[in-house]
């Protein structure tokens, strides 16, 4: 082949190459240094059970209720279920610190108090290192204990089973023994003192079935029996009120009930548990002020003791007796005491034991005999 022919073929090939390169040239969008960007996946990452077999995850990684998340039982946190997110969390400082060692100088939090190990009598153990030798810690009668070390919390079971921070994490449940504050002791005070002025009172009363106001000062000039009574005593005093009035004595019964209760009580027959229109006034003390002044109120029970007070014509308290609520009083003894006080006021003579109105002549002789025996 001649050199001229080769030259022509070279020119033809060059032209063909130029046209081919023009046809097969890459479009403008792919030219230059720009590269095609990868398309991001729209599917969410899901937790895989196989991850818990990895050495980096097996001690702390647990599945979450949602497949798109995972749980760290050391940090007690919820993490997105992506391997890169989990690796990043495993390398975090807080995660590493919580997986670290528990120092030997462990402080135990029981209830709300910090207690050192030496103060606790019963010994159990915790896994101080993630799989190492247990460190003794003592607890006594506590369901759970927190070991505190610069923000490190480890739960300890009172059954003696060690629970390390690398195995599981339990929110500590502290059971506090109920502390009952001591009730303040109520001091029972009284203004009722024998031989002194009786504590005054004004209150609503039921008299002969009608509501009225009574005042202690209204009874000046006559003896008064001021009685904290029950139903049986009201009936007994009502039946014998004439005998007391012959002895210049009036009777007033008092209770901590309201006047409306007394009104309904008076209309109820004795057979039905009432007092059947008593002949003596029923004084109401719903605020307990009279009971407090006379020293018979029991604040813890809300009612008063049974008591009898004898007030003379000048308003002086001359006699008083007090009983438990289960004991009734004798009407005869009360009437004898009234007559003895009247006799002593009239004659200015002392009255001996077992005195009765029929022994008035023997009174002075007995007193002189007692005085000579004392001398």
Strand order of the largest sheet: 11-10-14-13-12-17-18
Class derived from helix and strand content: alpha+beta
Which outline best applies?
rod-shaped
Strand content: 15-25%
The profile of the biggest β sheet is: 7 strands, mixed
Residue stretches low in confidence (pLDDT < 50, at least 5 long) are 12-32, 101-168
The topology string of helices and strands comes to: HEEEHHEEEEEEEEEHHEHEHEEEEHH
Which CATH top level class of the largest domain fits? Alpha Beta
Shape-level CATH architecture of the largest domain? 3-Layer(aba) Sandwich
Describe the structure.
With 375 residues, the protein is α+β, with helices and mostly antiparallel strands. It has 3 domains: 49-98; 107-157, no CATH class; 202-363, 3-Layer(aba) Sandwich (Glutaredoxin), CATH 3.40.30.10. It has helices at 3-23, 83-90, 93-98, 231-239, 241-246, 259-267, 289-293, 331-347, 363-374; strands at 61-63, 69-72, 77-80, 107-110, 113-116, 123-127, 134-138, 144-149, 152-157, 202-207, 210-215, 223-228, 249-255, 282-284, 297-298, 303-304, 306-311, 317-323. The strands form 5 sheets. It has a 7-stranded mixed sheet with strand order 11-10-14-13-12-17-18. Strands 5-4-8-9 form a 4-stranded antiparallel sheet, with no helix packed on it. Its EC number is 1.11.1.24. InterPro entries: AhpC/TSA (IPR000866), Peroxiredoxin (IPR050217), Thioredoxin-like_sf (IPR036249), Thioredoxin_domain (IPR013766). This is thioredoxin-dependent peroxiredoxin. Belongs to the peroxiredoxin family. AhpC/Prx1 subfamily.
């Amino acid at each position: 082949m001649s050199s001229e022919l080769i030259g022509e073929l070279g020119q033809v090939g060059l032209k063909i190459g130029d046209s081919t390169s023009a046809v097969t040239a890459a479009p403008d969008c792919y030219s230059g240094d720009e590269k095609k960007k990868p398309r991001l996946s729209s599917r969410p990452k899901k937790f895989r059970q196989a991850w818990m077999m990895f050495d980096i995850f097996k001690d702390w990684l647990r599945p979450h209720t949602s497949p798109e998340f995972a749980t760290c039982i050391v940090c007690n946190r919820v993490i997105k279920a992506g391997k890169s997110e989990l690796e990043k969390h495993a390398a975090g400082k807080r995660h590493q610190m919580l997986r670290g060692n528990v120092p030997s100088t462990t402080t135990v939090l029981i209830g709300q108090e910090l207690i050192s190990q030496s103060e606790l009598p019963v010994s159990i153990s915790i896994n101080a290192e993630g799989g190492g030798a247990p460190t003794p810690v003592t607890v006594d009668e506590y369901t759970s204990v927190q070991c505190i070390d610069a923000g490190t919390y480890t739960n300890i079971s009172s059954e003696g089973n060690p629970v390390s921070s690398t195995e599981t994490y339990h929110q500590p449940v502290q059971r506090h023994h109920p502390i009952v504050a001591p009730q303040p002791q109520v001091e029972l005070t009284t203004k009722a003192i024998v031989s002194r002025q009786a504590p005054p009172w004004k209150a609503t009363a039921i008299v002969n079935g009608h509501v009225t106001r009574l005042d202690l000062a209204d009874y000046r000039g006559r003896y008064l029996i001021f009685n904290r009574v029950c139903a049986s005593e009201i009936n007994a005093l009502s039946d014998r009120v004439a005998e007391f009035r012959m002895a210049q004595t009036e009777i007033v019964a008092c209770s901590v009930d309201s006047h409306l209760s007394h009104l309904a009580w008076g209309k109820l027959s004795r057979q039905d548990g009432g007092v059947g229109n008593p002949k003596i006034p029923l004084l109401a003390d719903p605020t307990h002020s009279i009971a407090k002044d006379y020293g018979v109120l029991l604040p813890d029970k809300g009612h008063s003791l049974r008591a009898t007070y004898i007030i003379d014509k000048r308003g002086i308290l001359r006699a008083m007796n007090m009983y438990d609520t289960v004991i009734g009083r004798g009407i005869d003894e009360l009437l004898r005491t009234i007559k003895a006080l009247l006799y002593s006021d009239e004659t200015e003579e002392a009255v001996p034991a077992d005195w009765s109105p029929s022994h008035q002549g023997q009174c002075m002789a007995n007193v002189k005999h007692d005085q000579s025996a004392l001398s």
